[in-house]
Request: fold
Amino acid sequence: MLMDRDKIKWLIKKSLRELVRRDAGLIHRKVKEECINHRLACYLERFLNVGSSTLYSVDLEYNKNCNDPKKIIIDENKNVKAIRPDIIIHERENNNNNLIAFEIKKNYTNRHDLEKIKGLLRSPYKYKYGCLISYLPTKSYIKVKLLSNQDQNGEEFRVDKNE
Reply:
């Protein structure tokens, strides 16, 4: 299934709305971020596979690039850091078919999260999209920033928790 920006936004919004509908209590409790992310990954996988025979897998805390550790360059001296994205949608056995990498925080994402996503949009990973999500337990919305390897400035949108 071809996944253009509109389909990616639909997938993210639909999955976040389902998370809010079924698991809002997790966002408001002091559970670990990974617990909430697991539920989101379940919904991403469910809606990703609607009407298609997709090759994509949805994985949490996936720290490998085929058999090598996942790492990004962190400064102008080409120093590298091992990374572990919160959620990824990818084809496990094909490094040329990485769809979306997510960095997610209960509160606000930060510069480090953005740099990690930008690193995953570049070679050798070449994710088509990167997504920053802030669950924001005290707000009435979830904040989302969607970037692509074509537009690393990205666009921001919100998912209302009261829909």
The chain has a mean pLDDT of 91. The chain has one domain: 5-160. The two ends are 28 Å apart (CA to CA). Strands lie at 57-60, 64-65, 68-69, 71-73, 80-82, 87-90, 98-105, 129-134, 141-148, 155-160.
